Amino acid sequence: MTVTVERSARAAGKGAAVRPPRRPRDSYALFLLPGALAFLAVIVLPFVMNTYVSFTDWQGVGSPEWSGLANYRELMDDSEFWASFRHSLSMVVAMAAIPTALGLVLAAALFDYVGKHFGSRTAAVLRACFYLPQVLPIAVAGIVWSWILAPDNGSLNALLKAIGLGSWQQDWLGDPDLALYSVMGVMVWVQLGFPLVVFMAGLQRVDPQLYEAAELDGAGWWRRFWHITLPQIRPEIYVVLTWCSIAALKVFGAVYVLTKGGPGGATDVPSYFSFTTFFEKTQVGYGAAISTVLTVVILALSLIGLRLQERTDS
Amino acid sequence: MLTARRRVVAAAVILTGSLLVTSCGDSDSGSSDGKTLRLWHYEGPSSAMGIAWKEAIKEFEATHPGVKVEFEEKSFDQIQKTAPMVLNSSDAPDLMEYNKGNATAGLLSKQGLLTDLTEEATKRGWDKKLSPSVRTTSLYDTNGVMGSGKWYGVPNYAEYTLVYYNKDLFKKYGIAEPKTLDELTAAMDTFVENKVTPLANGGAAYPAQQYLYQLALSKADRSWVDAYQLYKGKTDFHDAAWTYGAQTFTDWVKKGYFSKSSSGQNEEAAGVSFTSGKAPILFSGSWWYGRFKTDNKFDWGTFRWPDSKLTLGSGGNLWVVPKGSKNKDLAYDFIDITMSKKIQNLLGNSGGVPVAADASAITDPQSKTLIDDFNTLSRNDGLAFYPDWPVPGFYDVLVSGTQKLITGSEKPDGYLSDLQEAYDKGAPKQ
């Protein structure tokens, strides 16, 4: 393309010196255009429309009636909405905090111990095993887990019974005191592979001499982990935490497949709450208000995450 | 003249624009040439309705030479979630199956998205073929409330709830078929004594709320139903009927008639616990009938809920003609065929409940019982619709509340107050 432009410039009798050569960034901008337009059509435009709908009273058909801030006022007093947000925080623990912490320890163990003692192939196989749930569609994983956690014929209860722990059997997804923890457990399993892979990639760029020097100085595995591994892969930790927190706030599929927000709303999350308000109750304006609030929260969180990342990079 | 760079930019914009436009979908929105009937429904191919409608398509094409039926099988969820948007677009089919009730067909009729079928219903005699209680869901007033006004849909099958019971298990424990509620509770006590949970149940879906509504119905009358479903009067959830329903349901949980773990189970789990021979009794809809005929490996039977004039049920889902239908006359002809004796008899013999069948043409004895029971109910004005109908989103409120009753995290009084609050918020103001 640059060649064509130069050729046409020469043909017009203008030397290249007449016009300063364009910076490469200008020609790259052109490649961004399709993506930018698609982003506009698929993300920005629907978001603007959704925000508009959130200020109306609308059942999804006919004309929306402007209702100003009524939906947002109702949202502030809606105990179900706040409960769903509290459950979201539990999801952040299950999908961001726990997998990040566990992923760090596992990545360090696989990289520093398994890789050294059992060979890098073994570490790679184990890493792939941990990552497998990330590849499975959540609907498939959810249905399999609902079989495992079923109260009467579920494999978990059957296993407990088989090993003589029959009294520990529970209605994992049907007991309101347990259901959220069960869903959290499933989400830890789903999410763990992602931080693990990112951290193992991050560990590749840590200078091995640091570990060797520390080892010569008599530092044990735990001290090496604490004083070398953690500070060295801090950027990856921020990326993973931000990414996973956003995924946790958006979680929908698992709740839809496992519990449909039940029992008695015990596992309801904002995205599912918005979905049922939208489609089941046909309160489209109110559902849109929930989505808008959720989007704003996620955007804010993303910006904080990016800022933290920039700070560590600099 | 465009410079080379501008040409490239223009080409990129045009290419991207056209990609975006095509990605938004460009489906054939049908034609009004009278040669195609675009039909959507969501009945499984092996269900009674699926079998009957397949035959109706054949019949239609035979009686309309040169006309092709373009059938698209949809899922219940697909139509439930997207119907308003589809009907608002030029992609609407000529004829489609849609859910009955105020929150669904009523809402669409109110918004002017459905064709008024009053004239056709009179002209073609559909109004004569449907009994008053089946007809209720066909008529909607200007506020989208069922029961009066214009015809916006035609149901051509019906559904109601009944007690399915495992005769082999009843025999095993020496229990006769219950004729009264006392006999039914005595039977359940016997099962509990023998460590068998008598009632198949699903708290995470419709079965649990239907048990509770049936208990309330056994203490109610038509005016109570009209107040609750058609807003013809005030609904008080703390009245005798609702209180009895919620309290008895809670007592039955305590007595072990329902398993505690049923709170997280869906309707499928409830059905499976009956077909697998685990639970001896399931109270649910006639829509299970065909499946039980093939799946049950034991002797089974049905009876109506004892000591109750009313039970859950209504005309089935509706044929509706979208406002944007381009071949309305073909759509009316197709509805007419589904109402014919031939198709209705086939529906009845396939395990469905027809609304205009020839009683003598139903040859299967079990189907005969099913249809006779329905006809008795229909004649006695005993169909009380479904508990989640009056208010959009009430289904979720009932699921959530009934789950709490099963798990013991809510008392009947609190449960009924929750229902009252959601109902008052969603029902049209009196």
Quickly describe the structure:
The complex is a heterodimer of chains A (314) and B (430). With 314 residues, chain A is mostly helical. Chain A has helices spanning 2-11, 24-53, 70-76, 79-118, 120-135, 138-148, 155-162, 179-191, 193-204, 208-216, 221-232, 234-250, 253-258, 270-280, 284-313, and strands at residues 56-57, 65-66.
Largest sheet composition of chain A: 2 strands, antiparallel
Rounded mean pLDDT of chain A is 87
Strand elements of chain B, count: 12
The outline of chain A comes out as: flat
**What is the strand tally of chain A?**
2
Helix content of chain A: over 70%
Radius of gyration of chain B over all CA atoms, rounded: 24 Å
Q: What oligomeric arrangement do these chains adopt?
A: heterodimer
Summarize the main sheet of chain B.
5 strands, mixed
Shape of chain B: globular
| Cα separation of the termini of chain B | 70 Å
Question: What order do the SSEs of chain A take from the amino end to the carboxyl end, as H and E?
Answer: HHEEHHHHHHHHHHHHH
What is the residue-averaged pLDDT of chain B? 88
Give the class of chain A from helix and strand content and strand pairing.
mainly alpha
Q: Helical element count of chain B?
A: 19
Characterization of this structure:
The complex is a heterodimer of chains A (314) and B (430). With 314 residues, chain A is an all-alpha fold. Chain A has helices at residues 2-11, 24-53, 70-76, 79-118, 120-135, 138-148, 155-162, 179-191, 193-204, 208-216, 221-232, 234-250, 253-258, 270-280, 284-313; strands at residues 56-57, 65-66. In chain A, helix 12 runs antiparallel to helix 15 (284-313). The longest helix of chain A is centred in the N-terminal third of the chain and has 40 residues, at 79-118. Chain A is flat, with a radius of gyration of 26 Å. In chain A, 34% of the residues are buried. In chain B, strands 2-1-3-11-6 form a five-stranded mixed β-sheet. In chain B, strands 7, 8, 9, 10 and 12 form a five-stranded antiparallel β-sheet that branches. In chain B, helix 2 (48-63) links the parallel strand 1 (36-41) and strand 2. In chain B, helix 10 crosses helix 18 (394-407). The longest helix of chain B has 20 residues, at 4-23. Chain B starts with a helix and ends with a helix. The model of chain B is unreliable at 18-29 (pLDDT under 50). Classes of the chains: A mainly alpha (314), B alpha+beta (430). The interface between A and B is large, with 38 and 51 residues.
